[in-house]
Write a structure and sequence with these properties.
Layout (H helix, E strand, L loop, with lengths): L12 E4 L5 H12 L3 E6 L4 H13 L4 E4 L7 H13 L4 E4 L14 H29 L2 E6 L12 H21 L4 E8 L8 H4 L2 H9 L13 H7 L11 E4 L7
Parallel strand pairs: 1-2, 1-4, 2-3, 4-5, 5-6, 6-7
Helix pairs in contact: 1-2, 1-8, 3-4, 4-5
C-alpha cells in the first residue's frame, strides 16, 4: 500500500464553500494540489474569488467558481447543481462558509440569529441533501463541515455562532450512521484561533491576543494552512475508515 497515494484525488470533483479567502481557500488549493477539480465559492463575484480561482487553476485547470448568498434558502441546492453541471457529479463537499456576528447575548436580534443559523446550519443541511444522491450512486463520497473550537469553548459574544456550529457537529454525527452504508464519510473539522481576515481585527489588540494565546497549550495562533492536512485526510481514501468525528485543529485550546 502506497500511503502517500491514498491522499491523491485524481478524477474527483469537489465543491468548497466560502473559499475566496482563509480556511476555505487553503482547503481548495490543497484539494487541487492533490488532483481534484474544484468549484470555489463566494457569496458574490469579487476580486478575492477571482484570485483564488486563478491560483486553483494553476494546479487544476478545469476548476470553476460559483457564487451565491447562502442566507437565501434556494442558493445551497443551486450552487451544488451549478458545480455539478461544470465538473460532473460531486465526490467531495466541503461546507466552510459561515457568518459570525459578535454581540453580547442580550443584544442579539432575531434577524441576526436567523441569518447565522441559515448560513451555518440550514445551508449545510440543504447542500448535503443536494450532494448525497450522486455520491450514493457512486458508492463513494466525502463530506466535510468546518466547525469551530467554540463547540467546546463558546465565546460569550458569539452565542448564536457557537450554537450553530454545535448543531452542525450534531448533524454530522447523526448523518454518519445514515450515509455510511452508501460509502460516504462525513466529518467535522473544528479549527481553533486561526489568523484569518475574520479574526485579525480582534487579535490586533495585543492585550486581548495575549489572553487568548495563554489558553492555547501550543501558545500560538494557527494559519489557514494548518487546517489543510486534516481536510485532505478526511476528503481522501487515506481517511476511508473515519466518519462521524469532530477533528479539532486548535493547538489544544479545547482541552479542559
Amino acid at each position: 500500500m502506497n500511503s502517500i497515494k491514498t491522499f491523491r484525488l485524481d478524477g474527483r470533483a469537489a465543491l468548497v464553500t466560502g473559499s475566496s479567502r482563509g480556511i476555505g481557500r487553503a482547503i481548495a488549493l490543497g484539494l487541487a494540489e492533490c488532483g481534484a477539480v474544484v468549484a470555489v465559492h463566494g457569496s458574490k463575484p469579487a476580486k478575492a474569488l477571482d484570485e483564488t480561482l486563478a491560483e486553483v487553476r494553476k494546479l487544476s485547470p478545469r476548476s470553476v467558481a460559483v457564487t451565491g448568498d447562502l442566507s437565501q434558502s434556494e442558493v445551497p441546492a443551486r450552487i451544488v447543481a451549478e458545480a455539478t453541471a461544470a465538473l460532473g457529479a460531486l465526490d467531495i463537499l466541503v461546507v466552510n462558509a459561515s457568518i459570525q456576528i459578535r454581540k453580547p447575548w442580550a443584544e442579539v436580534t432575531q434577524a441576526a440569529a436567523e441569518q447565522q443559523m441559515q448560513v451555518n446550519f440550514h445551508a449545510t443541511l440543504r447542500m448535503i441533501q443536494a450532494a448525497v444522491p450522486a455520491m450514493r450512486a457512486k458508492k463513494w463520497g466525502r463530506i466535510l463541515t468546518v466547525g469551530s473550537v467554540q463547540q467546546q469553548r463558546p465565546h460569550p459574544d458569539m452565542v448564536v455562532y457557537a450554537a450553530s456550529k454545535s448543531a452542525q457537529e450534531n448533524l454530522v454525527r447523526n448523518l454518519a450512521k445514515q450515509v455510511g452504508p452508501d460509502g460516504i464519510t462525513i466529518n467535522n473539522l473544528a479549527p481553533g484561533v486561526i489568523l484569518t481576515d475574520r479574526n485579525v481585527p480582534a487579535l490586533s489588540d495585543d492585550a486581548y491576543a495575549a489572553r487568548v494565546r495563554e489558553i492555547i497549550p501550543l501558545r500560538f495562533f494557527g494559519e489557514s494552512e494548518d487546517c489543510v492536512g486534516a481536510a485532505l485526510l478526511l476528503c481522501s481514501d487515506a481517511g476511508r475508515y473515519i466518519t462521524g468525528v469532530d477533528l479539532l485543529v486548535d493547538g489544544g485550546m479545547a482541552l479542559p
